[in-house]
Design a protein that fits this description.
With 305 residues, the protein is an all-alpha fold. 61% of the residues lie in helices and 2% in strands.
Length: 305
């Protein structure tokens, strides 16, 4: 490969500026340099399914909200998030920072990803208490870490398939889940509890389903993210993102959680977000994904499966 050809990302485009101002606040994202150290592929690297799935902000936003819904549906995870973080006062920033952590894990150099996740694990260790159902919780509980990992990995992949690559095959999906092992280990998960196939992920969903429940916290979160735009510049667009996230969740779980996405507009919503994702796919040139490509001398075409 002619690495000199891809030595540095081009200047930011209008879409890059929109991406930085909406999806990830500059004060947080600017702390991370995805262009260094040169030659470091990180924990995934070019050619991975993960680099393709995480590259586009549209499915990342939809998938991230879907994952958060499922996390808040579990009583112990909900108590840990609600009682021990900024989520109660500022859920949007909390969601954005979670997205940034995913980007650093996916596209950052190894040392950068290790430093970030070590801080996250240290914070999680202080998260302890009793949930509303009387069960104890701990931020580094392997079962809870597994559920957070599974919902995030699943949400990002499902949104990517729906809005960018519906033809992604079973083999590539299994490879995506298997690729997650190193990143999951950074957050404290042991290999024996990390689902590495689509079938194993579905089994994890089935096992956790009886524990999932509606709650006032979940309702409050959905109201907030519908009414306060943080990706799109208006509330109508924001509601479309949230409804799209609810669309991703299997119907049996939507019914269990009392979720309504506005099914009448599903076709238009899907078409609109697919068009937006396609524009973003080729319009972003200074995103973490493209910076990571420049870092290792890879053609940005590797971000498109």
């Amino acid at each position: 490969m002619d690495t000199a050809r891809y030595a540095a990302p081009p200047s930011p485009t209008f879409l890059d500026q929109l991406y930085s101002s909406r999806l990830a606040p500059p004060r947080d994202l600017a702390r991370f340099d995805f262009a260094e150290p040169k030659g470091d592929p990180g924990f995934f690297g070019p050619g991975s399914v993960t680099w393709a799935v995480f590259a586009n902000p549209v499915p990342m936003a939809v998938g991230g909200i879907a994952a958060t819904i499922l996390e808040l549906a579990e009583p112990r995870v909900r108590a840990g998030v609600w009682n021990h973080s900024s989520f109660r006062k500022d859920p949007l920033t909390r969601v954005q920072r979670t997205g940034i952590a995913a980007l650093v894990t996916a596209y950052g150099g190894r040392a950068q990803a290790e430093q970030l996740t070590a801080r996250v694990r240290k914070m999680h260790d202080k998260v302890r208490g009793i949930a509303d159902n009387g069960e104890p919780y701990w931020g580094n509980d392997p079962e809870l870490l597994q559920w957070v990992h599974v919902t995030a990995a699943w949400g990002f992949l499902q949104a990517y398939r729906r809005y960018l690559n519906p033809g992604l095959g079973r083999e590539e999906q299994d490879r995506y889940y298997a690729e997650a092992l190193p990143g999951a280990h950074l957050y404290g998960l042991t290999p024996d509890i990390v689902p590495t196939t689509r079938a194993a992920t579905e089994a994890c969903f089935a096992a956790m389903e009886p524990r999932l429940e509606p709650s006032a916290v979940l309702d409050e979160f959905l109201t907030m993210v519908r009414e306060v735009p943080f990706l799109l510049p208006n509330t109508a667009g924001q509601r479309m993102i949230v409804d799209a996230a609810i669309d991703l969740i299997p119907s049996r779980l939507r019914q269990r959680l009392g979720l309504e996405s506005g099914a009448a507009g599903a076709a238009l919503r899907t078409a609109t977000l697919r068009a937006m994702a396609q524009v973003m796919a080729w319009g972003l040139r200074a995103s973490p994904a493209h910076q990571a490509c420049a870092r290792v001398g890879a053609d940005p075409a590797v971000l498109h499966l």
